[in-house]
Prior knowledge:
There is one protein chain. Helices cover 32% and strands 16% of the residues. Helix 2 packs across helix 3 and helix 5 crosses helix 6. It contains six helices and six strands, in the order βααβαβααβαββ. It is an alpha/beta fold. The radius of gyration is 17 Å and the shape is globular. The two termini are 33 Å apart. Strands 3-2-4-1-5-6 form a six-stranded mixed beta sheet, with helices on both faces.
Amino acid sequence: MKxxxxxxxxxxxxxxxxxxxxxxxxxxxDQGRRDADAIAVRLHELIPxxxxxxxxxxxxxxxxxxxxxxxxxxxxxxxxxxDLREKSYGVAGGRPQKWLxxxxxxxxxxxxxxxxxxxxxxxxxxxxxxxxxxxxxxxxTADSATHRIIVTHGGSLSWVIAAWQGxxxxxxxxxxxxxxxxxxxxLREDAYFHNRTVHTLGDSSHLLN
Length: 209
């Protein structure tokens, strides 16, 4: 059995300030730091005691800060992977969310959705975003590790799951997986059929109130 534990970073300053995240390098709030500690505790319960997991994280501060207590608990060093970042919203990053909402052009229900221009200068298209995360997952899963931890962002989580399951990039035109901040998603590959399942999606029962 191989397991991948996908972590979405908990509450960050852009959440409470009403700002666009993306590549804007916000930090965890005090609550987010407490939740990061709780994530590390829960992972230590989930992962077999004799196992040393491989830990990968987005290089943005809020993800790297989430990875730190995990790294300390397991005695490993996180590997920073810029391609695990959230979608880039270009000039909207760090601006008020209302600024983006007033200018954003949503994708059509049918037609070109992956290379769609959302109307924001410097923003990634969905195709660029998905392709980048797929590259990251390809590199992360190239070794023989049986337990891996990936710390990423709420949006990029969907593409981590899709890439790990081997879905074609074109399937991401409509595919979406929802998980809240500070959640743990468990992906499993069995040792016989090598089927890959989403065992647990967005579990947040470990978070402190």
